Amino acid sequence: MSRPTGRVLTLLELLQSGGTRTMRELADRLGVDGRTVRRYVDQLIDLDVPVESVRGRYGGYRLAPGYRLPPLMLGDDEAIAVLLGLVAGRRAGLTTATATASETAAAKIRRVLPERLARRLDTVLASLAFTEPPGEFATPDAGVLLTLADAVHHRRPVSVRYTDRGGRRSDRTLHPYGVVAHEGRWYVTGTDPGIGEERTLRLDRVTDARTLPGSFEVPTGPDPAQRVLSGFATAAYRHEVTLRIHGTVEQLRARLPASVARVTDPASAAGTDPATERWLLVELRAERLDWLPPVLASLDRPFTIERPDELRDLVIALADRLADRARGTAPR
Known about the structure:
The protein is α+β, with helices and mostly antiparallel strands. It has eleven helices and twelve strands. The strands form three sheets. The chain has a five-stranded antiparallel beta sheet with strand order 7-6-5-4-8. Helix 1 (3-16) packs across helix 3 and helix 4 packs antiparallel against helix 5 (101-112). The longest helix is centred in the last third of the chain and has 19 residues, at 309-327. The protein is elongated and about 85 Å long. The protein starts with a helix and ends in a 5-residue tail after the last helix.
């Protein structure tokens, strides 16, 4: 492919991305002058591509509304980005219940690529290694995901059939605020209008979703991702833990992320420097406590345990073991 022909195709790709492109922008992106841009536009028009000229201070060129784009064309960088995105998404659990969808999509893209580029991409994929094995993720149904995403976008209520972790099935109404992907799972968060409380549901446990008439307003507050994370930190578990740790929020979040613990500053005031170390209230819930003493030790910050007493005993036992090993003495 000659360089001028390649630039004409690049011009078409820029126009396909939508909106009006100014003459200066097109000239800079193509590495040519304005006269050459006009010549390339004329070549597209000769190929029956309806390029419109927009006059005025912010004028330039755009495609006519309603123009049906030609078949998909991908450059080397674009093809690599798409295929690597499919591979990474499959390993991260960002797929739907149609487990082969990403594989068949990758195969279709691979078939329409020029042989030279296809061979190079095969080389990249064959030589690519991951430090972590692929996870086993529970994936949502594609129809459920699309229905909920449309309801979020248009602020429409939905009716869902849900199975909780105890295996109990129920039909629920939800005002969905957002769909969130977190650690290989998909969630929808919103308000249950029947009880007036927020709910976070796993999408792989939703077997049916239907849009209902009406609309709702999303309340002010945290974004959907923060709502999901805070829901994890306040979920009902066996142990309720309350700590006070001296440090900054950033220091604590290094070991206690928002999905694990809620961190508040009882003495917070407007204008307080977030980098100033002070006593912070940390609250979390956990099914087990044995993982928490090593986390507190790794923080290396002063702390006090308000509850439960069992955690205090575990921290003392860990401190004794570390001291014995440091001295080389037999364990107590």
